[in-house]
Amino acid sequence: MVQTEPNPTLPDWITYPEADWISITPAEAGLDLEKWADFLAEREVRGAAWEGEDHTGDNWGTILTRGGYRVQTWGNGDYKFQTASVGKAFNWAVLGLAVERGLVNADDRIHQTWTGEGQLSHPHKYLDRGHHKKLTWRCLGQRVDGKHWGGFPVTNGYFWRRGSTGSSKETADRPIPEWANWTGDPFYDNYAHAEPGTVGIYSSGGQWRLVQALTALWNKDIKQVLDDELFGEIGIPAEAWDWTPGRVVHEDKTWYAHMPGYGDFLDAPYEINGHQVRGGGGWVVMSAKNLARYGHFVATGGVWKGKQLLNPEWVISHGGGNGSLLSGESTYYTAMGKVTTWGIEHPLPDALFVGPVQIAPMMS
Fold first, then answer.
1. C-alpha to C-alpha distance for 204 and 124, rounded to whole angstroms
2. Which of 136, 177, 261, 267 gives 20 to 30 Å between its CA and that of 308?
3. pLDDT tens figures, 179-198
4. Rounded to whole angstroms, how far apart are CA atoms 282 and 211?
């Protein structure tokens, strides 16, 4: 574990939650009360209803924090549900932990560690063949300008079958790129169609391949990696969250009721050396309270109680299409965790802030 002295760039009013968040008022959080009231009045915060999901009643929740304190709760902050693509932030953290533990260099070719031969469903997917031979860990895992650069074009089985790279009804008109060799079968087509680094596209298919490779690299369930290496330190108990296996999303043809066959692109292997492979596209099951806790970890640049647990390069925010989010920012040190919630976004507008948190930090 990487540990340092307390980061001198962090304000002295930043604290870290223990088992639960301490709540403070908007005034104590350094918000302009009039502008904050206007901001809230302009928003209707409610449960999402994405592609057939039903989040009526208390089946949604959002937590906003600043400096390690809870400022606002909407809905049920303890509600847990799969959070779509939010887990891509955790994929990146698992890779970062591997780099910092010396298991691999981020710019190593993946096939030097795992080729997938005899495990991936077809030889054209083996990572020492075709465009995969140039595929590095960083290139497959990193998202730049909202796109992935590993050459994997598939994100959604339902739309891929229909000749689109869309991931939702709002993006259904995205055509298959000219560089992709489309057969109409998302399972067969989930491989690098172009040289890594040359074309960018948002790709859950490439993230699934990353998670398979990470499972082989660690020779361990990557949920356990996070529990053992990181989450225990920041106060997220192993039993408080789950990470849906890719097999589950692949086999559940009604994972999203309005997109039957969504998970058809999630190809074998679903276990590597006896370790189940978690959902590469995301599908983390976690409460808003704990998503906000990780968001606070993002805001502090990977520091928790004076320890640099993970270098800032590997600590990122990510949203999910079903109204879920983990997010942190280091200008005002705010964070947000959202589970299936519409009507509120993060970061907040700069104009809302008039000063730092106005209470003494709790001892930790």
1. 19
2. 136
3. 999 999 999 999 999 999 99
4. 10
The residue ranges of every structural domain in the chain are 33-83+283-352, 84-282
CA distances from 217 to 4, 119, 245, 285, 350 (A): 27, 14, 17, 24, 42
Extract the tokens encoding 91.
């994929």
**Sign of the alpha-carbon dihedral angle for 198, 201, 205, 208:** positive
Report d(CA 25, CA 33) in Å as an integer.
10
**Spatial distance between the Cα atoms of 298 and 130, rounded to a whole number of angstroms:** 36
CB 232 within 8 A of CB 129: no
- In this predicted model, what pLDDT tens digit does every residue of 287-312 receive, in sequence order? 999 999 999 999 999 999 999 999 99
Joined tokens for residue 358: 């106005």
**Encoded amino acid at 229, one letter:** E
| Displacement of CA 12 from its chain's centroid (Å) | 29
Pair 338, 288: CB distance under 8 Å? yes
Question: Would you say 341 and 74 are in contact if contact means Cβ atoms under 8 Å apart?
Answer: yes
Nearest 5°: the CA angle 211, 93, 113 is 45
Q: What's the pTM?
A: 0.95
Distances (CA, A) of 330 to 9, 14, 67, 244, 327: 10, 11, 10, 30, 10
What are the residues whose beta carbons fall under 8 Å from the beta carbon of 302, sequence distance 6 or more?
308, 309, 310, 311, 312, 314, 315
CA 95 and chain centroid, separation: 13
Q: Which two tokens stand for residue 329?
A: 């920012």
Rounded to whole angstroms, the Cα distance separating 167 from 259 reads 9
Contact residues for 170 (Cβ-Cβ < 8 A; gap 6+): none
Cα(242)–Cα(227) distance, rounded to whole angstroms?
11
Beta-carbon contacts of 34 under 8 Å, excluding residues fewer than 6 positions away, are none
pLDDT attached to residue 35: 98
Amino acid 362: pLDDT = 56
Determine the distance from the C-alpha atom of residue 87 to the mean position of all C-alpha atoms in its chain, rounded to a whole number. Answer: 3
